[in-house]
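User: Study the chain.
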Amino acid sequence: MTKKLFKMYILTMAVVAFVIQGCTTTKPLPADPLAYKNRTKSSVNGDVAVTVAVPTIAEAQVIYGVDLASKHIQPVWVEVKNDGTSPYWFLPSGLDPNYYSPSEAAFAFHTGSDDANRERDEKFQKLQFQNPVRPGTTQAGFVLVNLDEGFKAIDIDLISREDVKSFSFIIVDPDFKADFKMVDFNTLYTAEEIINIEDEKELRRVLEELPCCTTNAKGDEYGDPLNMVIIGETYDIVPALVRRGWHATEVIWSSAILRTIKSFLQGERYRYSPISPLYVYGRPQDIGWQKARGTVNERNHMRFWLSPIRYRGQRVFIGQISRDIGVKFTLKSPTILTHVIDPDVDEARRYFIEDMAYSQALARHGYVKGVGFVSRDKPKMNLMGDPIYTDGLRVVLFFEPRPYSLSEIELLEW
């Protein structure tokens, strides 16, 4: 199939997906512009309380009267209650160093009408968070930042003449169709199935006995190697990933298929593109993550499954990571397209260790056997027919809440 015919085929599939989407969905009702206040998160530091929320794309459109997401803009609502004796200033650069001023964002929607433009400028300015937050007062408003779907990391830094106060939040987008939303992690295993481990030597033994690789749905063919283990709680792991530029993946549905095809045809980046299901414990991945490059063709991506193992009370996830380096046509994928992976999967594993070292949440890491050595000269094929070779090790990463500098990260002599 020539490249021209390939693109024509993909375009045809896009039209089919669009028709299917149009036949199976109805026009959504207008969003409640105040619904985001039912999803707030709050934190207190001394005499200052901060509350944040993120409107959905539909809610933001009702609030501002324009489709901010079309310009990749997202409003974050911030409320600061100051019960202290000194004024505080909120620093929006800490939330997003590339935030938008209200005038800048409003200008992106200017029309030929001076009156409409002036009205829009005034509306955007009125909605904006205003400094300072004086003693005994509460200040609330929006900050316009770059759009993130799935998860939003929110860092709030407040300064006074005497003090600096910092707050961190992770907000989940309620409209984002992510794979992890399909999983009830609290009921995956019964109490009898949980394997509680306290001894480090025993942990190593159990991790080496985990499956070597992912499989297909039937479980009769091996796929990519399970080359990573993550130990920790989600409230430590997820912020580390989000702040290092990892994004949750969408499930495969009509809109995601359309966005994938569009990004391929136009050579654009799609940071939430679905990843094909692989299987461990008889089920597809519980959660997928990816870090996209400039186009849909290239990305780092990984899949994780919650295991029944608990190490000193913490959850243990088994997973795989690989680097996508291109795209090819295949009927094996529901999206018609699939990625070609870098055969050196150890490189992707090594990259992830380095990336997490800069997250300040990685406390220590080590290696265990369990994958099986595969030489470069005699690679094995994954489920999509791509060659893979590896040293046969899986990395084990421990995440903890307090910040760890590069010099504090412990390399376990396993």
Remarks:
- The chain has a mean pLDDT of 87.
- The domain at 35-172 is CATH 2.60.40 (Immunoglobulin-like).
